[in-house]
Structures are given as structure tokens and as C-alpha cells.
Amino acid sequence: MQLALKDYGAALKDCSAAIERNATLIEPLLCRGQAYAGLKEYQQALTDFDAIISLYPQEAPAYRERARVKLAMKNVDAARADFEQAATIFQQQGNTA
What we know:
5 helices, mainly alpha, globular
């Protein structure tokens, strides 16, 4: 909810608390990465998205979000590669989102 309201500080706090309880859940890592990105703390965001991809290499939303961060950091080629990977995984899974 906080992410939708762009309350990145509150989202960061809640997601970090969930990660402390279980660091292998996708949703809190994804949420915290998005909160970091919203705060323009791009390296921390990349760390969370990289952690998801390391644990769950078929997690397309992590590639998509990592691509958005790389694009914000003006790393266009790396962003493109991640967007393409996300699209491939989404397609393999029969998703279009």
C-alpha cells in the first residue's frame, strides 16, 4: 500500500521488517527494492533485485524492476538486457504483465 502512495520510507521499514523474519521471500525483497528505487537509492535497490534473481532466476518481475533501476542509472544496454529477460520469462510462463 505504501508503494502505491509513494510513501517509500514506510514501505522500506515494513519490507525490511519482513525480510528480517525471512530473507528468502520474494515479495518483501521486491517491495524493498522498489522502495529503494523510489528513494533513488539505486545500489541498494539493485542489491535486493540481484538477491531475488540469485534465489529465483525465473522471477520475471525482479528482472523488470532491475531494468528500471538500470535505466534510471543511464545504463541503457544493461536495462535492455534485463527487460528482454523479463519478457522472455513472462512469455514462457504464459504471462503478459
